[in-house]
Amino acid sequence: MGWVLLWLSFSALPAMAQSPSSLGTTRLQEVASQYLDRSAFAAAVPYLHELNRRLRESEDSAAIRARESILFYLGLGRLQAAELPLAAVTLAEFISLYPDSPHASSARLYQ
To answer: N or C: which end of the chain has fewer CB within 10 A?
Structure first.
């Protein structure tokens, strides 16, 4: 059983080592989610940044809803990575776009 888990963890490494811009959107979401599930927000930043870039111009309601959590966790990731000016900008954008979000009060505190 231990070998299976070890193999599975190593098999995920190549996908996570790829440039986020070379991944499809679904795979970007999967990799970002894996990092977020482990509270590794800083490690998720490149994937969240790419997702945000792709969804920024979309007028699709699903993309707008998805950006809410992407921006929030991107801000947290930048904080965790000590990218303080970028974190402040990201959290400010999140608050301005999603003032009624359940995460808005936390974002204000982090900002």
So the answer is: N
